[in-house]
Amino acid sequence: MTRASDVAIIGATGIWLDPPATIRARTVDQLAWRFIADLTEGMDGTSIRAGVLKVASNERVEPFAATILQAAARASIETGAPIITHTAAAYRTGEQQAEILEEAGADPSRVAIGHSDDSADIEYLAGLAARGYRISMDRLPNGALPQYGGQGVDDRIDMIVRLIERGYADRILLAHDDPISAPLLTDEDQAQHKESNPWLLAFVADVVLPGLDRRGVTADTIRQLTTENPRVWLTGA
Description:
This protein is α/β, with parallel strands linked by helices. It has a single domain (2-235), classed as Alpha-Beta Barrel (TIM Barrel), CATH 3.20.20. Helices cover 46% and strands 9% of the residues. The protein has 10 helices and 6 strands, in the order H-E-H-H-E-H-E-H-E-H-E-H-E-H-H-H. Helix 5 (93-103) links the parallel strand 3 (83-86) and strand 4. The radius of gyration is 17 Å and the shape is globular.
């Protein structure tokens, strides 16, 4: 796929919401070993190695979600792989995740706190950035839909500008985690996403970056957001 598209595609290991019973029976050590194997040997019996760790929590970090976070921290320390999280930003879940990851020894600069643009609370996001975390503004197209936190698209772009003005340009990641093709959705939900985002995977390039430019964000800063920040987060360079 990477060769055919000429786009670097990075696979993820980790565990999303609602893991099966066979996963919930595993310990921190067992999960960490599984993640490390995916990162260093290959996933699902292939030679294709993961490049990032994905973990998830919703309104609060449940006990097993904490176990997963601890395992991901160990795998990140062992391999140098970055972590990206799923959060319910309106509940400030990222702060709970940060506490667990820090206690486990993870490097905040290698952790992207996901779905942060669902939050309207600048102090929550700036607080995480001040602790060294990457602020993943990665649901940008979903601002067109009311079920994603009440933050419209313009609100999300404005929040990016406010974080830049606070001195956190080097902490921000941009993306469009828009489920335009997600079998876990109903056909009606799928259609709603496609209708609200006709740009699909070009949303950041065609909507967000021009929006930042109109708000006075410099070309150098836009390059930092789109090129340098993801490079540093992914590689640790």
